[in-house]
């Protein structure tokens, strides 16, 4: 009888180890190795005998010209979604849509499915988590019950492939979720890394061979407890994350990886009683929750992908009873906050060492641009001295360690958006590209952070 060999797989990156260890050699994460039964011919490899039979034929690169730009796409007509995918789902590709449970992934994909079916695509929605009746109930709620989307409740990959082979070739297939899939080829239990990886591989192969666009849905927990999606990220052509904060109705769809387009796009949606609706102007949404100007609030004119997004940055600086004061950040990089605090202390003589500092980006939004430095610095100083910033000002600019205010890209777009939303003044770097200052706005262009601090305090 064949002995079942065990191996240890990293739940974060999928590296296989012969022995258990505290740290993964592949990605350096701690406590991510779990035991799994090994899988005969290697993941996705199949029996050795098959390999020598299959023959590949090289194709001249020149005959492939133009294929990337003209990747055949199926657009949904939902603008926020199409922008994030780079113009629609690409035929013959696989996409992973990840996000916390309950964030709205199934809702988003049912709406996408209905939109595609209405455009005469054959769409199959395979649900491994909910019964067909449940999926239909959701579709009803979304006003999509009359669409031609076909539903199936299956989790076994071989069964799913058999279902998909019936009838005309589907254009769009949704597998909700990848964690529920299992294949006869792998020995371990459903939900384990080996199963998720082998199943995803089978579905990716299906996409490539039939030309269908396949979407895999994956749950991600903050602790990374559930095995799978991180491993699948390396295998698929694109990864989208669906995010949102509890208590806020808006949701952000973010491109993390895209072999066929840009990776810094976002789509903004709002979750309502009847599903997700598009938010065409996210700045209005993020600034909508703004209270009358109070100390510690500054509006940052940011850019996400190709789109300007105005968002409020809130700082609270309060005397600390602790020997080591607290620093807490939501929505921004904490090491970046430490840097801005250090520059304010070292070059501007503003002391935070006796104060707790809290920084929050309003509306559950997350900023990755260094261009937010100036807005953060303004919010911090404003809170420390207890004086509100002018309500009609926006801020953008990067701060260097020397305290200089550095130019950032897309100034013209940032200003245009600020003008559109009725802001009258921009605090921004001098120099850089030609900003194209709107006539209704004035600019304050500090060369150093010292100049900004002097103006606030
Ligand atoms: P769902 O799409 O099932 O989330 P996921 O697939 O990511 O786990 O959506 C779950 C939440 O969305 C649930 O709490 C109910 C809410 N919801 C609405 O608020 N409005 C709607 O129209 C729908 C369909 C769901
Ligand atoms: Mg779901």
From TrEMBL:
Protein residues bound to ATP: 99-106
Record flagged with keyword Transmembrane: no
PROSITE patterns in UniProt: RECA_2 (PS50162)
Source organism superkingdom: Bacteria
Keyword DNA damage: yes
CDD domains: RadA_SMS_N (cd01121)
Residue intervals passing through the bilayer: none
Matching InterPro entries: AAA+_ATPase, DNA_repair_RadA, P-loop_NTPase, RecA_ATP-bd, Ribosomal_Su5_D2-typ_SF, Ribsml_uS5_D2-typ_fold_subgr, Rubredoxin_2
Swiss-Prot/TrEMBL GO biological process terms: recombinational repair
MF GO annotations: ATP binding; ATP-dependent DNA damage sensor activity; damaged DNA binding; hydrolase activity; zinc ion binding
One cellular component term from this protein's GO annotations in UniProt: cytosol
Motif window: RadA KNRFG motif: 257-261
Swiss-Prot/TrEMBL keywords: ATP-binding, DNA damage, DNA repair, DNA-binding, Hydrolase, Metal-binding, Nucleotide-binding, Stress response, Zinc, Zinc-finger
Domain note: The middle region has homology to RecA with ATPase motifs including the RadA KNRFG motif, while the C-terminus is homologous to Lon protease.
Family indicated by similarity: Belongs to the RecA family. RadA subfamily.
Name listed for the protein in its UniProt record: DNA repair protein RadA
Organism annotation: Zhengella mangrovi
Taxonomic lineage: Bacteria, Pseudomonadati, Pseudomonadota, Alphaproteobacteria, Hyphomicrobiales
Gene for this chain: radA
